[in-house]
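Example for tutorial group B:
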């Protein structure tokens, strides 16, 4: 790739994804989008009739399936086009029109779920046991899982009317922290560089400690000056969660958030308890960091600077694909041929271009390829891991959609990070085994240890903060800037250990995490990496049965609840054992680093 970032029109066709598996042309997409209102009408025609007979319910489900297939594919096509160049006016218009069409359809289908749930249990169980319902049975059962917490039609309408206002805290927080808050500049080698939410992490990795300290203090001072406003916004979000849980009759806001996936509360609490028991190993890592960096005191702004200097590497895109092929060989030739064929073929948009969305993602739908967006760079070994990670998501989608009918193919967020992190683990083991220099080995060990901290330890700490904040409100104690900072500072001191020195404003970190406005979500990162590490070990050390079990998980899609589907793979997330196993892997990494550094 040339040093200059190209315009989208100048990117080689072979480096772009092939969206023709969704629609051959934009005209075809326009026709599909135009069909949404009429397809919606076909579903609405069953309003008030779904409980009359098995045939009526089946007809409604088929009409609903047809509509949702089209909605999913038009949304995926427009969304992918927009990520190619986020400033493209035509793509922005297309994406906006999909949102409007979907919103209108959703409003007209407000009757659908309550009507299915209202059907008599004995009657609907008899209907869906028939062979004609094979493609819809699980969808109906999962929908009716919510029956104990569905209110009357009038009450449901009232709750639905506050959906938009319920997002006020989240949207106001985003506007305040991403637009209105100004953090000033940081002096880097005599040049003043802007400090923003985006550049913050770059400053924290700067080898110059003065740069890190200045950026850290200015960043958290900016939040501290607005602490009462931010605390009020987060308190509003928590209060809304508690209100919705109580309105529906859940025992707690945590219970309401876990109910949909049938995840027991013990899974959440086991995660926190198990990480607590293993905190001495995390503290040992920070002591090692202090020693390796040669510091008299380890401050909070010292935890993100790389422990081992970057190793200069150059891995072409094609070479990275072959690394994935070799590293993932324990999964068999069919898996690697399919994935690598997609990476080299039409699944992937490979390189950066002007206006293209940053980062990486996998966006699969029932129709078309399981697409992957990358911004691949040859000189960053992490991009090889990113390729494997997103490839894991896409293969999960590939197996799910080819093994299930439409209404039961989509897997949950709880399961989503397993297949991706599984692939990363195999790539790490492969690269470590084939490391040609001690420097590369140390770099890989340090990178993996940091990744586990970020995904397992840190997300568990965040999950514990969320739980404490919600329980405070549920126990009648209002949230204030002072109380939130106190909760978070205690967690900082507990997780980082006695070696860490904090600034007065360090506890403002708890008020700057946007994920907290979608409560009880971050714990899934911790459970995901734990399951992935356990399964990677099981598959690589096992035989054909262990590999087949893993493929059963990939193929299960949404046909099972997540705890059940992972049990099929061979890991029981209702037990603390997988968490402990992942923490044991982390302990081994720390021991290896201690010896080699």
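The residue assignment follows.
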């Amino acid at each position: 790739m040339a040093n200059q970032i190209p315009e989208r029109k100048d990117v080689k066709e072979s480096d772009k994804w092939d969206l023709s598996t969704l629609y051959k042309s934009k005209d075809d997409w326009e026709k599909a989008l135009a069909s949404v209102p009429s397809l919606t009408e076909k579903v609405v025609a069953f309003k008030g009739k779904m409980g009359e007979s098995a045939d009526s319910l089946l007809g409604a489900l088929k009409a609903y399936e047809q509509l949702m297939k089209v909605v999913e594919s038009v949304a995926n096509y427009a969304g992918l086009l927009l990520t190619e160049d986020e400033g493209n006016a035509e793509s922005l218009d297309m994406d906006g029109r999909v949102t409007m069409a979907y919103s209108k359809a959703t409003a007209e289908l407000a009757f659908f779920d309550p009507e299915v749930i209202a059907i008599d249990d004995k009657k609907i169980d008899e209907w869906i046991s028939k062979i004609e319902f094979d493609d819809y049975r699980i969808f109906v059962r999962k929908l009716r899982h919510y029956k104990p917490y569905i209110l009357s039609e009038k009450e449901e309408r009232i709750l639905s009317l506050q959906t938009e206002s319920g997002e006020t805290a989240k949207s106001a927080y985003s506007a305040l922290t991403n637009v209105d808050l100004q953090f000033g500049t940081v002096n880097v080698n005599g040049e003043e560089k802007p400090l923003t939410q985006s550049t913050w992490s770059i400053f924290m990795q700067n080898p110059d400690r003065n740069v890190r300290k200045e950026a850290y203090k200015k960043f958290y001072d900016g939040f501290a000056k607005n602490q009462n406003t931010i605390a009020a916004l987060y308190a509003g979000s928590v209060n809304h969660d508690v209100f919705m849980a109580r309105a529906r009759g859940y025992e707690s806001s945590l219970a309401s958030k876990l109910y949909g996936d049938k995840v027991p509360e013990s899974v959440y609490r086991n995660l926190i308890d198990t990480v607590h028991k293993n905190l001495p190993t995390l503290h040992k890592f920070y002591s090692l960091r202090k020693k390796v960096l040669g510091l008299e005191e380890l401050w909070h702004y010292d935890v993100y600077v790389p422990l081992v200097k970057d190793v200069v590497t150059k891995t072409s895109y094609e070479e990275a694909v072959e690394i994935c092929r070799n590293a993932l060989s324990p999964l068999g030739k069919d898996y690697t041929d399919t994935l690598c064929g997609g990476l080299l073929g039409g699944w992937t948009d490979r390189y950066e271009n002007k206006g293209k969305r940053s980062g990486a993602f996998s966006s699969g739908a029932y129709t078309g390829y399981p697409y992957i967006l990358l911004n691949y760079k040859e000189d960053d070994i992490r991009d090889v891991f990113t390729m494997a990670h997103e490839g894991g998501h896409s293969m999960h989608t590939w197996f799910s959609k080819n093994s299930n009918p439409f209404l039961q193919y989509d897997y949950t967020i709880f399961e989503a990070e397993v297949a991706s992190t599984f692939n990363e683990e195999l790539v790490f083991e492969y690269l470590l085994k084939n490391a040609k220099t001690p420097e590369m080995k140390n770099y890989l060990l340090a990178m993996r240890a940091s990744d586990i901290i970020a995904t397992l330890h840190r997300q568990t700490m965040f999950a514990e903060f969320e739980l404490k904040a919600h329980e405070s409100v549920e126990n009648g104690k209002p949230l204030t800037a002072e109380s939130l900072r106190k909760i978070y500072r205690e967690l900082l001191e507990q997780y980082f250990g006695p070696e860490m020195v904090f600034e007065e404003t360090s506890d403002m970190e708890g008020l700057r995490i946007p994920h907290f406005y979608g409560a009880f979500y971050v714990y899934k990162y911790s459970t995901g990496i734990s399951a992935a590490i356990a399964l990677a070990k099981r598959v690589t050390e096992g035989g054909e049965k262990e590999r087949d079990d893993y493929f059963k998980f990939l193929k299960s899609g949404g046909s099972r609840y997540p705890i059940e589907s992972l049990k099929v793979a061979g890991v029981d997330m209702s037990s603390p054992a997988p968490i402990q196993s992942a923490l044991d892997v982390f302990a081994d990494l720390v021991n290896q680093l201690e010896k080699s550094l």
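The mean pLDDT is 95. Compare this with the pattern of hydrophobic and polar residues in the output above.
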